[in-house]
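input
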Amino acid sequence: MLQISQRGHDMPASPIRKLVPFAEAAKKRGTKVYHLNIGQPDIATPKMVLDAVRNSDFKVLEYSHSAGNESYRRKLVDYYKSVGIEVDHNQIIITTGGSEAIQFGFLACLDAGDEVIIPEPFYANYNGFAVAAGVTVVPITSHIENGFALPAIADFEKKITARTKAIVICNPNNPTGYLYSQAEMEQLKELVLKHNLYLFSDEAYREFCYEGTQTSALHLTGIDDNVVIMDTISKRYSACGGRIGAFVCKNKAVLDAVMKFAQARLSPPSFAQIAGEAAIDLPSDYFDTTKAEYKSRRDLIVTRLNAMEGVFCPNPGGAFYAMAKLPIDDADVFCQWLLESFSHEGQTVMLAPATGFYGTPGLGKQEVRLAYVLNLNDINKAMDCLKR
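output
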């Protein structure tokens, strides 16, 4: 009998999407499901972005350069300059979504058997890409009681071994919404310099900061060779289906290695690069309006959650996620029950159990992640369901 690879066996299923069959069954029963389980914004993709694709007049949908269209990369230089990051277009490689940027970083910088330290809870797909690369994720626990602040550097030191090659962060964070401060980023800088590590920084939610501003890993001085930025247009412009991301790095050896992987997959999507390039020309108030909308949603969902008996939800400083501790024993069972057995006025809510965001077994059993990607009216209705 044919066997699948050990890698295929070990590859984790998505904890975010594992409840989808139960949600589909609920909908077939006629139940309205409010999706707070996944970071798919309901905010319209800007018309200007879509029109750039619609109005394209080329006759052949060709491969782009393996690093991405030069015109797009040059415009990204201007975008990054606008957020205080100085890079050259040759230090940017366009990827098929932020996911490929993560994958390229792991494959180019890490060997099988190497370890990466990641504050948990963390974006679940980091684990999947680590498995694919033969890399071990070493979780370091952050806690809901202090809003999931960066763990103490002394605790990082305890996790570092001869196999440790990188630290991975997401800032602002998915799934916690925590916004790492400049002081915390400076602490990480000193740590990676001391131990000669890479600092992988996922900055997909850069624009969505509600108290303070984001400190990019490339804002830090004296650390250029260590830093890899993993970026995407998905959340920034509500363009998740475009599958356009960016790998940004000033280390030439790393860029040369990543370029080989980029050449092996030939080209990032040509159509979507047109959309990404057009997005850079959006009016300057685009993010002000979008951020204000997300902030109002955040304020509502945090207020509603903390008003419920036995519920605690720290106020997230960025992204569009909140983590909440509920008076339950098992979040996986509870989230499935909401879809299988619960209905309030013909409605229910879909949440993401937090266990899937932790690398340490047993953690997160009383926690859920909520993505505030619905309008205020729908969030209120979803909270009414949860309150019941």
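quick obs: The radius of gyration is 21 Å.
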